[in-house]
Design goal:
Helix content is 32%, strand content 34%. It contains 7 helices and 9 strands. Strand 2 and strand 3 form a beta hairpin.
Length: 233
């Protein structure tokens, strides 16, 4: 999998990428190597918010292997156009090590044996029931505060295909232990997970974990994987 994020600062460029939410679909429909793909917006602040961030946008794509992913991200016209218009961009390459659930009725990630070392990533994706929107987003301030204060998270962003209804969280951690500690310890994140389960707030959900293979580009002037400081969108 590849996750590419782009920052567009001028208003003219933000309007351009908004138009790409339709135009870029044609490029991916004709790109057989991309087995699954999504064009996403993002949230402000820590990213896990219902308020859209019109500067930051993302392309998530699933490929057969890392070589194809790097080739297409580097050479495909759609990626080249986005990089040319963006003020900055960063792509992280990953291989799934566990996955359960569906995304738009599909199972995009096929788990592989995890024999690597180094950073890992977690992705959650959900379609929120309209009747649960108020309850779900009411949990957001405490969760954002908790993940923003965690000293271990290397990178984090909240993205989604449709504001408010579709939610994707993506975060990178130095190792499985630090990620598990955040996910399982008592706090707003654990309480939100329990509330989701108790209330049946999601129509569809997917949870996946990845081994980070590498990255290209820069975010906030640096590669988040090479920085001890935490990076946010």
């Amino acid at each position: 999998m590849s996750l590419s994020i782009f920052r567009f600062r001028p208003v003219s460029q933000r309007l351009w990428v908004l138009g790409q939410m339709g135009a870029a679909r044609l490029s991916f429909m004709n790109m057989a190597e991309a087995r699954f793909w999504k064009l996403c917006g993002s949230g402000v602040g820590e990213g896990f918010t219902p308020k859209p961030n019109t500067q930051v946008w993302a392309i998530l794509a699933v490929w057969d292997d890392e070589g194809i992913a790097r080739d297409k991200v580097g050479t495909a016209p759609v990626f080249r156009r986005w990089r040319a218009h963006a003020d900055e961009s960063w792509t992280v390459y990953l291989t799934p090590t566990s996955a359960r659930g569906e995304w738009s009725g599909q199972t995009p990630f096929s788990a592989q044996d995890d024999t690597g070392q180094g950073p890992i990533a977690a992705l959650t994706r959900a379609t929120i029931k309209p009747s649960a929107l108020t309850q779900f987003w009411g949990q957001e301030p405490d969760i954002s505060k908790a993940i923003g204060a965690d000293p271990n998270v290397m990178f984090k962003i909240g993205i989604g295909e449709i504001p408010w209804l579709h939610q994707v969280t993506f975060s990178i951690w130095p190792d499985a232990a630090s990620m598990a500690d955040f996910a399982r310890k008592d706090g707003p994140h654990a309480r939100a997970i329990q509330a989701v389960r108790d209330g049946g707030w999601f129509k569809e959900e997917l949870y996946a974990r990845f081994r980070v293979l590498g990255a290209e580009g820069a975010w906030q002037g640096a590669d988040p994987l090479a920085q001890p400081e935490r990076s946010v969108a």
